[in-house]
Amino acid sequence: MFRYSAFLLAGTLLAGVGCESNPGSRTQPDDKRVTGEDVKRANREAAETNRKYAEQKMEEYRKDMQRKLDEMNQQLERWNAKIEQATGEMKQMLIEQKAAFEKKRDAFVEQMKKLSDSSSDAWKDIKVGLDRAFDDLKDSFNKARQHFQ
Q1: Cα–Cα distance for residue pair 91/89, rounded to 1 Å
Q2: In the list 21, 50, 86, 140, which could disulfide-bond 91, CB 3.0-4.6 Å?
Q3: Where are the domains positioned within the chain?
Q4: pTM of structure
Q5: What pLDDT sits at residue 119?
């Protein structure tokens, strides 16, 4: 028991040697307080960073949608050659499928124009409509593609 008490006392003394009586003396005093102007500046910077980020995302999205639209338009050109070679009812059906696709494509292009004209703050709302319009366009494209194969 005596050994245990001696070890406990020695440990307490050693631990106490590393402690200072004034714990604040090791840290630097906080000379600069955060002011309301600091908060306003930080908020402006954060808002600007957020705006730039949204613009970047909007541009990436626009480019991706344009790339997909361009691919579909290239396929449409190949369909035109097949329509010219077709005859009778088959030709009429291909023309109708192409027209249905073009109608959806035109609606999608109108949505894309809204995206180009939108602010970085509003683009997420427009994106929802664009995603729906693209899904419709893709469905129409896939349906038409089945007839052109």
Answers
A1: 5
A2: 86
A3: 58-149
A4: 0.66
A5: 79
23's enclosing H/E stretch is none
Q: What is residue 72's three-state secondary structure?
A: helix
pLDDT score recorded for residue 125: 82
Alpha helices in the chain, H assignment, sequence order: 2-17, 36-85, 88-117, 123-148
The per-residue DSSP string of 27-65 comes to SPP------HHHHHHHHHHHHHHHHHHHHHHHHHHHHHH
Task: Give every CB contact of residue 144 below 8 A, 6+ residues apart in sequence.
Answer: 79, 97, 98, 100, 101
Distance between CA atoms of residues 44 and 114, nearest Å: 27
Amino acid at 61: Y
* pLDDT tens column, 19-73: 445 555 455 556 789 999 999 999 999 999 988 998 899 899 999 999 999 999 9
Residue 119, token pair as written in the block: 């602010």
